[in-house]
Design goal:
Layout (H helix, E strand, L loop, with lengths): L9 H11 L5 H9 L7 H7 L1 H11 L7 E4 L5 E4 L5 H8 L6 E3 L6 E9 L6 H20 L5 E4 L6 E12 H12 L5 E3 L13 E3 L12 E3 L10 H9 L1
Antiparallel strand pairs: 1-2, 3-8, 4-6, 4-7, 5-6, 5-9
Length: about 240
């Protein structure tokens, strides 16, 4: 396995500090894994806790609130020119209009790093390869002592891997770290660029929750512990709240 160099420039050190201080405890995660809310399906679990999830997302995931991602009636993606509000996040988690969040702030920092392992065509070989790649990345993060979330994003072998920072980190360092984690894999990464270009907005990724085209609600895996499918709401709020 490749190792990060011992001597790193200040932006990477700032990223390491944010990673090393990322909040969360294994004890809380164990409690969530072993005590899911009785009677709640994955879909209803999101809806039942939409207000808490909206508050959590606003605090921990939103990099900029002057723009956000949306989907049209046919599932086509576009960027809204309206400000992002907590009400919009409430609607997203409550099974209404879906929201995507930009990966980079206007001052070029990131609150999170994410990988998107797609399987749009429901190809079982792609699904198996995606899972192997996801486990490789997550195991690598575990070796580094970094907390991660593995999202079953579409129910057909597509995955998102989320790494949350305790404080905003420089986008250039986050991008470099993500490229190092990906290695030779060609999966999408957010942020996609080491800095803002063009319109100065960067790219956005759909928030966990309901899928924009399929009858599927996100589920999460943890590989620090025996693999269980868990409701994101408890893991997100309790492990990272």
């Amino acid at each position: 396995m490749h190792r990060l160099p011992n001597k790193t420039p200040r932006p990477v050190n700032r990223l390491a500090e944010a990673l090393n201080r990322s909040p969360g405890t294994e004890a809380t995660a164990v409690n969530v894994l072993t005590n899911p809310r009785e009677g709640a399906t994955t879909e209803t679990a999101w809806q039942l806790h939409h207000e808490k999830l909206a508050s959590w997302a606003m605090q921990r995931l939103v990099n900029r609130d002057d723009r956000y991602g949306c989907y049209g009636d046919s599932g086509n993606a576009y960027t809204s020119d309206k400000p992002l509000s907590k009400a919009s996040l409430n609607t997203h988690f409550g099974a209404g209009m879906l929201v995507g969040l930009h990966s980079t702030s206007a001052d070029e920092t990131c609150r999170w790093l994410a990988f998107d392992l797609d399987n749009h065509d429901k190809d079982p070989e792609v699904a198996a390869r995606n899972f192997d790649d996801a486990i490789r990345i997550c195991n690598q993060l575990t070796e580094l002592g970094i907390i991660w979330l593995l999202e079953d994003s579409n129910g057909d072998g597509g995955f998102h891997i989320w790494i949350l920072f305790s404080e905003p980190a420089p986008v250039e360092a986050v991008h470099r770290f993500g490229k190092w984690l990906l290695g030779d894999d060609d999966h999408e990464m957010f942020p996609k660029q080491p800095g803002l270009t063009g319109k100065g907005l960067g790219n956005w990724l759909r928030l966990p929750g309901r899928h924009h085209k399929r009858d599927h609600s996100s589920r999460f895996r943890r590989v620090h512990l025996p693999i269980f499918m868990v409701h994101v709401l408890g893991l997100a709020i309790n492990a990272f709240g």
